[in-house]
User: What shape does this take?
Amino acid sequence: MKKEDKTIIIDKIAQTLKEYPNFYLVETAGLNAEKTSALRRACFAADVKLIVVKNALLHKALESLEGDYTELYPALAGPTSLMCTTVANAPAKLIKDFVKKDETLPRLKAAYVEETVYLGEDQLDTLATIKSKNELIADVMALLQSPIKNVMSALSSSGTKIHGVLETLSKKED
Assistant: This one.
């Protein structure tokens, strides 16, 4: 491959990594054509971009980006596919679903999620349970709204109770 071609590919990989805040390094080399197509369809449905990359080119692309990706470099051995996403846990859930069907692949090598590096297959369960930024904001909003809802419901129910008591007392006087 010519040096100019490599530079173009490195720039494309770097641009892709800039577009997506989270990415996973996955081994998919042992999948047959049918399973690879199924994985690609599942990635498309989950809004995950799947790219098969050369380790050296991905290494150079990571070096060209701002940030420290040195912890990921040991995972760049053997066949590597790059799964890019905006939803932090989507690829982990997708990989878990595939592993349930086929015990071997795809296999998680490493992940860069929410500016944190996860190395090894044993991190898959942790990654699948990570909540996205929007999910965390929704949880905080629900927690903040809960006491207000409780106070409002207590006040509204107390109002009807007081009204009922007053109405009963006014009828007794007659």
